[in-house]
Design goal:
CATH topology: Alpha-Beta Plaits
CATH architecture: 2-Layer Sandwich
Number of strands: 4
C-alpha cells in the first residue's frame, strides 16, 4: 500500500485529495476518507493536498499509526468511492489540530 489516510482525517474529512487523484482510490465514510491500496498508483499527488497532513506514505508511518494500514484496507472494501471534492465537515477546523481521534471514527 503506497499511501494511507491516518487519524488526522477523522472528524475533518477534507476532500482536497480526492480532487487530484487520477484513479479514484479514495472511499468516503461518515467522518473520514480511506485509500484503497489496490487502486492507489503511488502518484504522490494527494499527500501535499491534505490540509491536515492526514495522508502518509506507508513506509513513513510512525509505529503507532501502523494500524491505519489495515483500517484503510478494511474500510475501502465497504465504503463507496468518492471522486468529487465536497465541503468539509462543518466543525472540521475545530478538529484539525486534535490528536488521538480514533475513538471518534464512525464506521
Amino acid at each position: 500500500m503506497p499511501f494511507v489516510v491516518i487519524e488526522g482525517c477523522i472528524k475533518c474529512k477534507y476532500t482536497d485529495c480526492v480532487e487530484v487523484c487520477p484513479v479514484d482510490c479514495f472511499h468516503e465514510g461518515p467522518n473520514m476518507l480511506v485509500i484503497d491500496p489496490d487502486e492507489c498508483i503511488d502518484c504522490t499527488l494527494c499527500e501535499p493536498e491534505c490540509p491536515v497532513e492526514a495522508i502518509m506514505c506507508d513506509e513513513d508511518l510512525p509505529e503507532e499509526m501502523h494500524g491505519f494500514v489495515e483500517l484503510n484496507v478494511e474500510l475501502s472494501k465497504i465504503w463507496p468511492v468518492i471522486n468529487e471534492m465536497k465541503t468539509a465537515a462543518e466543525d472540521a477546523d475545530s478538529w484539525k489540530d486534535k490528536t488521538d481521534k480514533l475513538e471518534y471514527l464512525e464506521r
